From TrEMBL:
One GO cellular component term: protein-DNA complex
Alphabetized Gene3D superfamilies for the sequence: Periplasmic binding protein-like II (3.40.190.10), Winged helix-like DNA-binding domain superfamily/Winged helix DNA-binding domain (1.10.10.10)
Pfam families linked to this entry: HTH_1, LysR_substrate
Family listed: Belongs to the LysR transcriptional regulatory family.
GO molecular function, one term: DNA binding
Organism: Nocardioides aromaticivorans
UniProt name for this protein: DNA-binding transcriptional LysR family regulator
């Protein structure tokens, strides 16, 4: 630190070309400042300044030293600023994986908010992820946060609930149910259903099966798909109806109507998960911004 202090003293004197003004700028007395510069010259073994009663000039060695001194101080100041920004969570990289409904409803607003509040953090997003794939990606470190559907039975992950989302039924616009103000699970018992794939371990597949079981009905599943966008596209094509979280209605496609599903239908939960051993400041700041957005 003594070297850095001497460098700052020297640069200030060199810029002011006057010990008195330099001392005033450094908030110190002139004699100690002059002594510090003398000590620096003695340590270097070269004369850096030519002193007169009125001003101070640089020697050729002093001019060369000034250029290097400024570069060193700028680098040190930049490193300190970078360290402070890292500690404040203002720089870094966060990869976020989203289930289908969050991809269309929450992700657009979240990406804008993150860009505004954390401009120094780089974000990447993976949409249309199934929960099982998100959990694998969290464990492997290919994503840092997951917007997913609980429950999550993994003690290595921290899961925080964000909100409850109502369930609605996506129906073709020409379907008789499209004219209804609400539907019950029983109304869907003899209707072709489009669901997320059981083979790919979809959380929504289990939700739909449980809804029908609780209502004492058997679902008539005709099509299984991997992505929410494909599911809604098939509904628009008239191939069946689908039970989806209400935010999926943000994926507005011509030919699709969304009708509320009444009891005994339950809402589904949206949560954010991350590895418990992850506590980087930029990751925590991202979680804060996400919580604020959902709470607005």
């Amino acid at each position: 630190m003594d070297l850095l202090r001497h460098l700052r003293y020297f640069v200030t004197v060199a810029e002011e070309r006057h010990f008195g003004r330099a001392a005033e700028r450094l908030h110190m007395a002139q004699p100690p400042l002059s002594q510090q510069i003398r000590r620096l010259e003695a340590e270097l073994g070269v004369e850096l300044l030519v002193r007169t009663t009125r001003r101070v000039d640089l020697t050729a060695a002093g001019a060369a030293y000034l250029e290097r001194a400024r570069a060193i101080l700028a680098s040190v100041d930049g490193a300190a600023d970078e360290a402070r920004r890292v500690a404040a969570g203002a720089v870094g990289h966060v990869a976020i994986g989203c289930v289908g409904s969050a991809t269309y409803s929450l992700l657009p607003a979240l990406s804008r908010r993150l860009a505004d509040e954390l401009p120094g953090v780089e974000f990447s997003f993976r949409g249309e992820m199934l929960v099982a794939d998100q959990l694998d990606a969290l464990r492997e470190g290919t994503i840092d946060l997951a917007l997913l559907r609980p429950p999550v039975a993994d003690g290595s992950l921290t899961v925080t609930s964000l909100r409850k989302e109502r369930l609605v039924v996506a129906v073709p616009s020409g379907h008789p149910l499209a004219a209804r103000h609400r539907v019950r699970v029983a109304d869907l018992a003899r209707t072709d259903l489009i669901v997320h794939s059981a083979g790919r371990r979809s959380a929504m597949y289990d939700v739909v099966r449980r809804l029908f079981a609780d209502a004492g009905e058997a679902p008539r599943i005709r099509h299984e798909v991997g992505e929410t966008s494909t599911l809604v596209t098939l509904v628009a094509g008239g191939l069946g109806v689908a039970v989806v979280p209400e935010p999926v209605s943000a994926l507005a496609l011509a030919g699709v109507a969304y009708v509320p599903l009444v009891r005994p239908a339950a809402s589904v939960e949206l949560a954010v998960a991350h590895r418990t051993d992850r506590s980087e400041p930029h990751l925590l700041r991202t979680l804060e911004v996400l919580g604020e957005l959902v709470g607005d």
